[in-house]
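Re: your question from the hallway

Yes, I did run it. Sequences:
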Amino acid sequence: MEKILVLDFGGQYNQLIARRVREHNVYAQIKPYNKISVDEIKDAGYKGIIFTGGPNSVYDDSSPHYDAEILNIGIPVLGICYGDQLMAFMANGKVASAENSSEYGKTTVQTFDSVLFKDIPDESVCWMSHTDFITEAPNGFKVIAKTSKCPVAAMCDEERNLYGVQFHPEVTHTVYGKQMLKNFLFEICKCSGDWKMENFVENSIEKYKTELAGKKVLLALSGGVDSSVAAVLLHKAIGQNLICVFVDHGLLRKDEGDFVEKTFRGQFGMNLIRVNAQDRFLSKLSCVCEPEQKRKIIGEEFIRVFEDEAKKIGKVDVLVQGTIYPDVIESGKGDSAVIKSHHNVGGLPDVISFEEIVEPLRDLFKDEVRKAGTQLGIPYELVWRQPFPGPGLAVRVIGEITKDKLDILREADAIFREEISNARLEKETNQYFAVLTDLRSVGVMGDARTYGYTVALRAVTTDDFMTAEWTHLPYEVLEKASSRITNEVSGITRVVYDITSKPPATVEWE
Ligand code: XMP
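Structure:
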């Protein structure tokens, strides 16, 4: 399979570059610049290399540099922003820093005759974000674009297939960015575009049919997109030798556990063990109010339940994990402050005896996992399922968790989701749910006084869940949801809408 290397110099768009390349059906791999040598690059057989941007100036002592030999090994290179300046620096061009030459935002760029700009008008809009800039292209390079402030907005050495752009073609604000990347991939690197989801799915099934033949394979199924896609993929390869364990901790949304069971056992005929562990989790959580403590208890108990199940199953050969590509890239990055301890199945390898771990989705981005899911015939509502936290409704019932409170929340949440769906707004907001606050207030129903809980509705719009805006849902939808919730769910007297963005709030309340 042909592949492109995205050599990462610390730019904020590294993942975006890889995704943009893959949108052209060419497989892209991201590697930090200090984790791969020129020899390793040569051996890996890349068709092309993209140097990412980065926050530094090439003249800072601490800034990332790379062996200049990379420019002579015959593999085409595209340098973007810092990557462009670095290429100029390595080839003895001139880079300068001047506050009054910095450009930020949409900028008009004039492009000259070059294969990189094939099928692109001479003048177009690009996205700039830089202070340093190239004042003089290195020997052997010619200038192929400029802006009013940037004399070398793009350059190339056609003989060595080296190209550099000061702007960001991977950002959608660069109107012809997609075409530029296409030109680099197909005209310069001579890629053919063989990275297609059908091929990935078929090849993976064939590969695991052979590799896992006769082995006992265990997978923790949560009903989330990643573990569901991994499960169906492996099921197609090894059938009943795949054992899926679904721990229902009783903290799922309305009818969710039954849906998971129906889909995987009913529709796909999988070897599925559903563990109904609601009582176990509720008893561990009794009288616990502190959010982090709830998360820790659930994470720990999840592993204990799984461990008990694994004992019944006996020795397994392979444990499957639903790791996806962003997890692979992110692991190994520096420590950041723990805002919430996210729960996943990371602790399982310690409690189960097995010989091998298989991660069938470790090369895929989330949107590619969804494409693979669709390809595998997984129902739409599962493939496009909104994110749901591992600790489930436990972090949406504020304060102590009881079965009654969970039931109230499940009903309110189901109504809210139904109203979003009735208004066909599922695609307009990225995550939406109800939270049962610990606040009770007075209401009136008929002629009687009521005293019930306050439910908060939350809907957010976001690309990456690192930051989020509250979604401006139409008043009519909120009104309908509020009216139905107070009428149909006993125990609720008041409904509020959360209008806080992230930051300063987080998406979940706990
Ligand atoms: P926060 O609340 O941190 O949420 O702004 C960001 C996104 O992460 C989801 N989330 C979790 N996902 N395990 C998960 O797998 C967790 O423990 C967890 N906590 C929050 C949240 O729903 C949102 O999509």
